[in-house]
Amino acid sequence: MTTTARLLDPGVLALLASLPPYDPAEAGRLDARLRAEGLDGELVATLLTQLRLRTRAREKFGDFAATMLFTEDGLQQATRLAVAAHHANRYRAAGCRHVADLGSGIGADSLALAGLGIRVDAVEVDEETAALAMVNLMPFPNARVLHADALTLDLSPYDGLFADPARRGPTGRVLDPAFWTPPLPAVLALRTRIPELGVKVAPGIRHDDLPGDAHAQWVSVDGDVVEAALWFGGLADAPGRSALVLRHGRPALLATAATPDASPGVAPTGPLRRFLHEPDGAVIRAGGVATLAERLGATVVSDLIAYLTSDSGAPTPFAETFEVLDHFPYSRKRLAAHLAARGVGRLEIKKRGVDVVPDRLRTQLRLRGDGEATVILTRLEGRHSAVIVRRTAGGQGTIDP
Ligand SMILES: C[S@@+](CC[C@H](N)C(=O)[O-])C[C@H]1O[C@@H](n2cnc3c(N)ncnc32)[C@H](O)[C@@H]1O
Description:
Layout: H1 3-7, H2 10-18, H3 27-36, H4 41-61, H5 72-77, H6 81-93, E1 98-102, H7 108-115, E2 119-124, H8 127-136, E3 143-147, E4 160-163, E5 168-169, E6 172-173, H9 184-189, E7 197-201, E8 215-221, E9 224-231, E10 240-247, E11 250-257, E12 275-279, H10 281-285, H11 289-296, E13 299-300, E14 308-310, E15 319-329, H12 332-341, E16 344-351, H13 358-364, E17 371-380, E18 383-391
Protein backbone atom coordinates (compact mmCIF):
# COMPACT_ATOMS: atom_id res chain seq x y z
CA MET A 1 0.00 0.00 0.00
CA THR A 2 1.38 3.45 -0.85
CA THR A 3 1.92 5.96 1.91
CA THR A 4 -0.80 8.13 0.35
CA ALA A 5 -3.26 5.23 0.41
CA ARG A 6 -2.50 4.70 4.09
CA LEU A 7 -3.09 8.39 4.77
CA LEU A 8 -6.58 8.13 3.30
CA ASP A 9 -7.64 5.59 5.91
CA PRO A 10 -10.24 7.37 8.09
CA GLY A 11 -8.51 6.18 11.26
CA VAL A 12 -5.18 7.60 10.09
CA LEU A 13 -6.80 10.90 9.08
CA ALA A 14 -8.39 11.11 12.53
CA LEU A 15 -5.04 10.38 14.16
CA LEU A 16 -3.39 13.08 12.04
CA ALA A 17 -6.08 15.54 13.10
CA SER A 18 -5.38 14.77 16.77
CA LEU A 19 -1.65 15.53 16.54
CA PRO A 20 -0.18 18.88 17.63
CA PRO A 21 1.19 21.33 15.03
CA TYR A 22 4.70 20.53 13.81
CA ASP A 23 7.45 21.70 16.12
CA PRO A 24 10.98 20.71 15.04
CA ALA A 25 12.10 20.67 18.68
CA GLU A 26 9.36 18.15 19.56
CA ALA A 27 9.45 16.05 16.36
CA GLY A 28 11.82 13.42 17.83
CA ARG A 29 9.67 12.97 20.93
CA LEU A 30 6.47 12.72 18.86
CA ASP A 31 8.13 10.17 16.58
CA ALA A 32 9.12 8.05 19.58
CA ARG A 33 5.68 8.34 21.18
CA LEU A 34 3.85 7.21 18.03
CA ARG A 35 6.20 4.27 17.57
CA ALA A 36 5.72 3.33 21.23
CA GLU A 37 1.97 3.33 20.56
CA GLY A 38 2.59 0.64 17.92
CA LEU A 39 2.70 2.62 14.67
CA ASP A 40 5.26 1.46 12.13
CA GLY A 41 8.12 3.76 11.10
CA GLU A 42 6.79 4.42 7.62
CA LEU A 43 3.43 5.61 8.86
CA VAL A 44 5.01 7.77 11.56
CA ALA A 45 7.24 9.38 8.94
CA THR A 46 4.20 10.01 6.71
CA LEU A 47 2.30 11.65 9.56
CA LEU A 48 5.25 13.86 10.53
CA THR A 49 5.74 14.88 6.90
CA GLN A 50 2.10 15.96 6.70
CA LEU A 51 2.44 17.97 9.92
CA ARG A 52 5.56 19.64 8.55
CA LEU A 53 3.97 20.41 5.18
CA ARG A 54 0.85 21.77 6.88
CA THR A 55 3.02 24.19 8.84
CA ARG A 56 4.74 25.35 5.65
CA ALA A 57 1.41 25.53 3.85
CA ARG A 58 0.04 28.12 6.29
CA GLU A 59 1.78 30.79 4.24
CA LYS A 60 -0.32 29.84 1.21
CA PHE A 61 -3.52 28.55 2.79
CA GLY A 62 -3.80 30.14 6.23
CA ASP A 63 -6.05 28.16 8.59
CA PHE A 64 -7.22 25.86 5.78
CA ALA A 65 -3.77 24.26 5.83
CA ALA A 66 -4.50 22.60 9.16
CA THR A 67 -6.91 20.12 7.57
CA MET A 68 -5.37 19.71 4.12
CA LEU A 69 -3.05 17.04 2.75
CA PHE A 70 0.03 17.81 0.68
CA THR A 71 2.94 16.41 -1.22
CA GLU A 72 6.18 18.42 -1.44
CA ASP A 73 5.58 19.03 -5.15
CA GLY A 74 1.87 19.63 -4.74
CA LEU A 75 2.47 22.32 -2.11
CA GLN A 76 5.26 23.93 -4.04
CA GLN A 77 3.15 24.17 -7.20
CA ALA A 78 -0.10 25.13 -5.49
CA THR A 79 -1.61 28.55 -6.06
CA ARG A 80 -1.80 30.48 -2.81
CA LEU A 81 -5.41 30.91 -1.71
CA ALA A 82 -5.42 34.72 -1.96
CA VAL A 83 -4.47 34.46 -5.63
CA ALA A 84 -6.73 31.47 -6.33
CA ALA A 85 -9.61 33.57 -4.95
CA HIS A 86 -8.89 36.20 -7.63
CA HIS A 87 -8.89 33.46 -10.27
CA ALA A 88 -12.20 32.11 -8.98
CA ASN A 89 -13.77 35.57 -8.93
CA ARG A 90 -13.25 35.87 -12.68
CA TYR A 91 -15.31 32.71 -13.28
CA ARG A 92 -18.06 33.97 -10.99
CA ALA A 93 -18.09 37.39 -12.69
CA ALA A 94 -18.27 35.68 -16.10
CA GLY A 95 -21.29 33.66 -14.92
CA CYS A 96 -19.53 30.27 -15.19
CA ARG A 97 -21.47 27.52 -13.44
CA HIS A 98 -19.40 24.41 -14.02
CA VAL A 99 -15.62 24.68 -14.32
CA ALA A 100 -13.01 22.02 -15.07
CA ASP A 101 -9.68 22.59 -13.29
CA LEU A 102 -7.36 20.81 -15.71
CA GLY A 103 -4.35 19.55 -13.79
CA SER A 104 -5.70 20.41 -10.36
CA GLY A 105 -2.70 19.31 -8.29
CA ILE A 106 -3.68 19.12 -4.62
CA GLY A 107 -6.69 21.28 -5.51
CA ALA A 108 -5.97 24.87 -4.46
CA ASP A 109 -7.67 26.51 -7.43
CA SER A 110 -10.59 24.08 -7.26
CA LEU A 111 -10.96 24.90 -3.59
CA ALA A 112 -11.30 28.61 -4.33
CA LEU A 113 -13.82 27.97 -7.11
CA ALA A 114 -15.83 25.63 -4.92
CA GLY A 115 -15.70 28.14 -2.09
CA LEU A 116 -17.54 30.62 -4.32
CA GLY A 117 -20.29 28.08 -4.93
CA ILE A 118 -19.17 27.22 -8.47
CA ARG A 119 -19.43 23.57 -9.47
CA VAL A 120 -15.91 22.35 -10.13
CA ASP A 121 -14.31 19.15 -11.40
CA ALA A 122 -10.67 18.87 -10.36
CA VAL A 123 -9.01 16.82 -13.09
CA GLU A 124 -5.68 15.29 -12.11
CA VAL A 125 -3.69 12.67 -13.97
CA ASP A 126 -1.46 11.66 -11.05
CA GLU A 127 -3.33 9.17 -8.91
CA GLU A 128 -1.82 10.03 -5.54
CA THR A 129 -2.19 13.76 -6.08
CA ALA A 130 -5.80 13.21 -7.13
CA ALA A 131 -6.40 11.28 -3.92
CA LEU A 132 -5.07 14.15 -1.82
CA ALA A 133 -7.16 16.65 -3.78
CA MET A 134 -10.19 14.54 -2.93
CA VAL A 135 -9.53 14.95 0.79
CA ASN A 136 -8.84 18.67 0.38
CA LEU A 137 -12.10 19.19 -1.49
CA MET A 138 -14.17 16.97 0.82
CA PRO A 139 -15.88 19.93 2.57
CA PHE A 140 -17.36 21.07 -0.76
CA PRO A 141 -20.31 19.06 -2.14
CA ASN A 142 -20.05 21.08 -5.37
CA ALA A 143 -16.50 19.79 -6.05
CA ARG A 144 -15.40 16.40 -7.28
CA VAL A 145 -12.08 14.96 -8.36
CA LEU A 146 -11.60 13.11 -11.64
CA HIS A 147 -8.49 10.98 -11.95
CA ALA A 148 -8.13 11.55 -15.69
CA ASP A 149 -6.06 13.05 -18.47
CA ALA A 150 -7.23 16.61 -19.03
CA LEU A 151 -6.53 16.43 -22.73
CA THR A 152 -8.84 13.50 -23.42
CA LEU A 153 -11.62 14.63 -21.11
CA ASP A 154 -15.15 15.17 -22.44
CA LEU A 155 -15.47 18.94 -22.08
CA SER A 156 -19.17 19.14 -22.96
CA PRO A 157 -20.38 19.61 -19.34
CA TYR A 158 -18.27 22.73 -18.77
CA ASP A 159 -18.71 26.44 -19.38
CA GLY A 160 -15.30 27.40 -17.99
CA LEU A 161 -11.81 25.88 -17.98
CA PHE A 162 -8.79 26.57 -15.82
CA ALA A 163 -5.37 25.02 -16.38
CA ASP A 164 -2.13 25.30 -14.48
CA PRO A 165 0.35 23.17 -16.41
CA ALA A 166 3.25 21.67 -14.46
CA ARG A 167 6.43 23.56 -15.38
CA ARG A 168 8.87 21.28 -13.60
CA GLY A 169 10.20 17.99 -14.87
CA PRO A 170 12.51 15.39 -13.34
CA THR A 171 15.54 17.58 -14.15
CA GLY A 172 14.13 20.88 -12.96
CA ARG A 173 12.36 23.83 -14.54
CA VAL A 174 11.03 23.31 -18.07
CA LEU A 175 11.42 26.54 -20.01
CA ASP A 176 9.72 25.61 -23.27
CA PRO A 177 5.90 25.82 -22.80
CA ALA A 178 5.51 23.11 -25.47
CA PHE A 179 6.99 20.69 -22.90
CA TRP A 180 4.93 21.73 -19.89
CA THR A 181 2.41 19.10 -18.78
CA PRO A 182 -0.08 19.45 -20.26
CA PRO A 183 1.66 21.38 -23.06
CA LEU A 184 0.65 25.04 -23.27
CA PRO A 185 -0.29 24.93 -27.01
CA ALA A 186 -2.68 22.03 -26.36
CA VAL A 187 -4.27 23.90 -23.45
CA LEU A 188 -4.60 27.13 -25.43
CA ALA A 189 -6.32 25.23 -28.26
CA LEU A 190 -9.16 24.38 -25.86
CA ARG A 191 -10.52 27.93 -26.07
CA THR A 192 -11.92 27.19 -29.54
CA ARG A 193 -14.28 24.80 -27.72
CA ILE A 194 -14.82 26.73 -24.50
CA PRO A 195 -13.91 30.43 -24.77
CA GLU A 196 -13.82 30.99 -20.99
CA LEU A 197 -10.30 29.67 -20.44
CA GLY A 198 -7.74 30.72 -17.85
CA VAL A 199 -4.15 29.43 -17.86
CA LYS A 200 -1.46 29.99 -15.27
CA VAL A 201 1.93 30.44 -16.93
CA ALA A 202 5.52 31.22 -15.96
CA PRO A 203 6.03 34.89 -14.99
CA GLY A 204 8.95 34.99 -17.42
CA ILE A 205 6.73 34.36 -20.46
CA ARG A 206 7.71 36.71 -23.30
CA HIS A 207 5.18 39.33 -24.41
CA ASP A 208 5.89 38.33 -28.03
CA ASP A 209 4.71 34.79 -27.27
CA LEU A 210 1.32 35.84 -25.92
CA PRO A 211 -1.75 35.05 -28.05
CA GLY A 212 -3.32 38.25 -29.41
CA ASP A 213 -6.70 37.52 -27.75
CA ALA A 214 -5.22 37.01 -24.26
CA HIS A 215 -5.34 39.27 -21.27
CA ALA A 216 -2.06 38.55 -19.51
CA GLN A 217 -1.90 39.46 -15.84
CA TRP A 218 1.16 39.30 -13.61
CA VAL A 219 0.47 38.92 -9.91
CA SER A 220 2.66 39.79 -6.94
CA VAL A 221 2.05 39.09 -3.28
CA ASP A 222 3.78 41.38 -0.79
CA GLY A 223 6.47 42.26 -3.31
CA ASP A 224 7.12 38.80 -4.81
CA VAL A 225 5.93 37.98 -8.32
CA VAL A 226 4.07 34.69 -7.92
CA GLU A 227 2.55 34.09 -11.33
CA ALA A 228 1.33 35.27 -14.67
CA ALA A 229 -1.98 34.06 -16.03
CA LEU A 230 -3.69 34.31 -19.40
CA TRP A 231 -7.41 35.00 -19.46
CA PHE A 232 -9.68 34.53 -22.44
CA GLY A 233 -13.29 35.15 -23.43
CA GLY A 234 -15.57 36.45 -20.70
CA LEU A 235 -12.89 35.93 -18.04
CA ALA A 236 -11.18 39.15 -19.16
CA ASP A 237 -12.62 42.58 -19.90
CA ALA A 238 -10.36 42.91 -22.93
CA PRO A 239 -7.05 41.64 -24.32
CA GLY A 240 -3.94 43.38 -23.00
CA ARG A 241 -1.58 43.26 -20.05
CA SER A 242 -1.94 44.25 -16.43
CA ALA A 243 -0.33 43.90 -13.02
CA LEU A 244 -2.29 42.81 -9.97
CA VAL A 245 -0.42 43.80 -6.84
CA LEU A 246 -1.57 42.26 -3.57
CA ARG A 247 -0.10 43.87 -0.47
CA HIS A 248 -1.29 42.85 2.97
CA GLY A 249 -4.25 41.24 1.20
CA ARG A 250 -5.30 44.48 -0.56
CA PRO A 251 -5.47 44.32 -4.35
CA ALA A 252 -4.41 47.12 -6.71
CA LEU A 253 -4.64 46.81 -10.47
CA LEU A 254 -2.53 48.59 -13.06
CA ALA A 255 -3.43 48.23 -16.76
CA THR A 256 -0.16 48.33 -18.66
CA ALA A 257 -0.98 47.62 -22.33
CA ALA A 258 -4.04 47.40 -24.56
CA THR A 259 -2.67 44.44 -26.51
CA PRO A 260 -0.68 41.59 -25.00
CA ASP A 261 2.35 42.02 -27.25
CA ALA A 262 2.41 45.85 -27.26
CA SER A 263 5.79 47.45 -26.77
CA PRO A 264 6.18 48.50 -23.12
CA GLY A 265 6.99 52.09 -24.07
CA VAL A 266 9.96 54.05 -22.81
CA ALA A 267 9.80 56.27 -19.75
CA PRO A 268 11.82 59.49 -20.09
CA THR A 269 15.11 59.73 -18.20
CA GLY A 270 15.73 62.58 -15.79
CA PRO A 271 17.91 63.72 -12.89
CA LEU A 272 17.51 62.22 -9.44
CA ARG A 273 14.85 64.03 -7.45
CA ARG A 274 13.67 63.82 -3.83
CA PHE A 275 12.02 60.41 -4.09
CA LEU A 276 13.11 57.18 -5.71
CA HIS A 277 10.54 54.47 -6.49
CA GLU A 278 11.28 50.79 -7.05
CA PRO A 279 8.43 49.42 -9.18
CA ASP A 280 6.79 46.20 -8.04
CA GLY A 281 8.04 43.14 -9.95
CA ALA A 282 4.56 42.49 -11.39
CA VAL A 283 4.54 46.00 -12.87
CA ILE A 284 7.98 45.45 -14.41
CA ARG A 285 7.05 42.04 -15.84
CA ALA A 286 3.81 43.44 -17.24
CA GLY A 287 5.85 46.08 -19.08
CA GLY A 288 4.33 48.84 -16.97
CA VAL A 289 7.31 50.98 -15.93
CA ALA A 290 6.51 53.74 -18.43
CA THR A 291 2.81 53.64 -17.45
CA LEU A 292 3.73 53.91 -13.79
CA ALA A 293 6.21 56.72 -14.48
CA GLU A 294 3.47 58.72 -16.19
CA ARG A 295 1.07 58.05 -13.35
CA LEU A 296 3.60 59.19 -10.73
CA GLY A 297 4.90 62.14 -12.76
CA ALA A 298 8.27 60.40 -12.59
CA THR A 299 11.24 59.76 -14.84
CA VAL A 300 13.68 56.85 -14.83
CA VAL A 301 17.07 57.52 -13.24
CA SER A 302 18.93 56.26 -16.31
CA ASP A 303 18.03 54.72 -19.66
CA LEU A 304 16.63 51.20 -19.25
CA ILE A 305 16.92 51.26 -15.44
CA ALA A 306 13.64 50.47 -13.67
CA TYR A 307 14.06 52.96 -10.83
CA LEU A 308 11.76 55.97 -11.00
CA THR A 309 12.32 59.36 -9.45
CA SER A 310 9.90 62.19 -8.68
CA ASP A 311 9.33 65.18 -6.40
CA SER A 312 6.35 63.49 -4.81
CA GLY A 313 6.46 60.67 -2.28
CA ALA A 314 2.71 60.10 -2.48
CA PRO A 315 2.04 56.47 -1.64
CA THR A 316 1.49 54.00 -4.45
CA PRO A 317 0.87 50.27 -4.17
CA PHE A 318 2.82 49.75 -7.39
CA ALA A 319 6.25 50.70 -6.07
CA GLU A 320 8.30 50.91 -2.93
CA THR A 321 9.12 54.54 -2.33
CA PHE A 322 12.32 55.87 -0.76
CA GLU A 323 13.35 59.37 0.23
CA VAL A 324 16.77 60.28 -1.12
CA LEU A 325 19.12 61.40 1.68
CA ASP A 326 22.37 61.64 -0.25
CA HIS A 327 24.00 60.46 -3.43
CA PHE A 328 27.49 60.41 -4.91
CA PRO A 329 29.44 58.68 -7.68
CA TYR A 330 29.95 55.09 -6.59
CA SER A 331 33.28 53.73 -5.46
CA ARG A 332 33.64 51.16 -2.71
CA LYS A 333 36.07 53.40 -0.87
CA ARG A 334 33.78 56.39 -0.93
CA LEU A 335 30.77 54.35 0.18
CA ALA A 336 32.81 52.79 3.01
CA ALA A 337 33.92 56.25 4.19
CA HIS A 338 30.34 57.58 4.05
CA LEU A 339 29.03 54.70 6.15
CA ALA A 340 31.93 54.72 8.62
CA ALA A 341 31.43 58.45 9.29
CA ARG A 342 27.82 57.68 10.28
CA GLY A 343 28.49 54.54 12.31
CA VAL A 344 26.44 52.32 10.01
CA GLY A 345 26.73 48.69 11.12
CA ARG A 346 23.70 47.31 9.26
CA LEU A 347 23.33 48.04 5.59
CA GLU A 348 20.59 47.09 3.16
CA ILE A 349 21.96 47.06 -0.38
CA LYS A 350 19.70 47.32 -3.41
CA LYS A 351 21.07 47.46 -6.90
CA ARG A 352 20.05 47.69 -10.51
CA GLY A 353 22.29 48.19 -13.53
CA VAL A 354 25.59 47.80 -11.67
CA ASP A 355 27.75 44.72 -11.34
CA VAL A 356 27.91 44.26 -7.57
CA VAL A 357 27.29 41.22 -5.36
CA PRO A 358 25.60 42.74 -2.29
CA ASP A 359 26.71 40.11 0.24
CA ARG A 360 30.31 40.30 -0.89
CA LEU A 361 30.26 44.10 -0.87
CA ARG A 362 28.77 44.14 2.63
CA THR A 363 31.69 42.05 3.90
CA GLN A 364 34.22 44.20 2.06
CA LEU A 365 32.77 47.37 3.61
CA ARG A 366 33.70 46.17 7.16
CA LEU A 367 30.67 47.86 8.68
CA ARG A 368 30.88 48.96 12.31
CA GLY A 369 28.42 50.78 14.53
CA ASP A 370 24.81 50.79 15.69
CA GLY A 371 23.44 52.74 12.73
CA GLU A 372 21.35 51.34 9.88
CA ALA A 373 21.14 52.50 6.31
CA THR A 374 19.84 51.57 2.88
CA VAL A 375 21.93 52.19 -0.21
CA ILE A 376 20.77 51.84 -3.79
CA LEU A 377 23.59 51.22 -6.25
CA THR A 378 22.56 52.14 -9.74
CA ARG A 379 23.25 54.42 -12.66
CA LEU A 380 22.12 58.03 -12.49
CA GLU A 381 21.87 59.34 -16.06
CA GLY A 382 24.54 56.83 -17.02
CA ARG A 383 26.94 57.33 -14.06
CA HIS A 384 27.48 54.56 -11.50
CA SER A 385 26.19 56.04 -8.26
CA ALA A 386 25.38 55.29 -4.66
CA VAL A 387 22.06 56.68 -3.44
CA ILE A 388 21.50 56.69 0.31
CA VAL A 389 17.78 56.42 0.98
CA ARG A 390 15.16 56.00 3.67
CA ARG A 391 11.95 54.03 3.14
CA THR A 392 8.86 56.19 3.33
CA ALA A 393 5.65 55.08 5.00
CA GLY A 394 4.12 55.34 1.54
CA GLY A 395 6.77 52.92 0.38
CA GLN A 396 4.76 50.21 2.09
CA GLY A 397 2.37 50.88 -0.76
CA THR A 398 -0.94 50.49 1.00
CA ILE A 399 -2.83 53.33 -0.68
CA ASP A 400 -3.93 53.41 -4.28
CA PRO A 401 -3.32 56.93 -5.71
C1 LIG B 1 1.14 23.10 -11.36
S1 LIG B 1 0.22 21.73 -10.83
C2 LIG B 1 -1.36 22.42 -10.49
C3 LIG B 1 -1.45 23.13 -9.20
C4 LIG B 1 -2.84 23.59 -8.84
N1 LIG B 1 -3.31 24.66 -9.69
C5 LIG B 1 -2.91 24.05 -7.41
O1 LIG B 1 -3.00 25.25 -7.18
O2 LIG B 1 -2.86 23.20 -6.52
C6 LIG B 1 -0.05 20.86 -12.33
C7 LIG B 1 -0.72 19.52 -12.17
O3 LIG B 1 -1.13 19.08 -13.47
C8 LIG B 1 -1.10 17.66 -13.47
N2 LIG B 1 -1.13 17.24 -14.89
C9 LIG B 1 -0.13 17.28 -15.80
N3 LIG B 1 -0.58 16.82 -17.00
C10 LIG B 1 -1.88 16.52 -16.83
C11 LIG B 1 -2.89 16.05 -17.70
N4 LIG B 1 -2.64 15.78 -18.98
N5 LIG B 1 -4.12 15.83 -17.19
C12 LIG B 1 -4.39 16.08 -15.89
N6 LIG B 1 -3.47 16.53 -15.02
C13 LIG B 1 -2.24 16.77 -15.48
C14 LIG B 1 0.18 17.35 -12.73
O4 LIG B 1 0.16 16.03 -12.24
C15 LIG B 1 0.16 18.42 -11.64
O5 LIG B 1 -0.41 17.91 -10.45
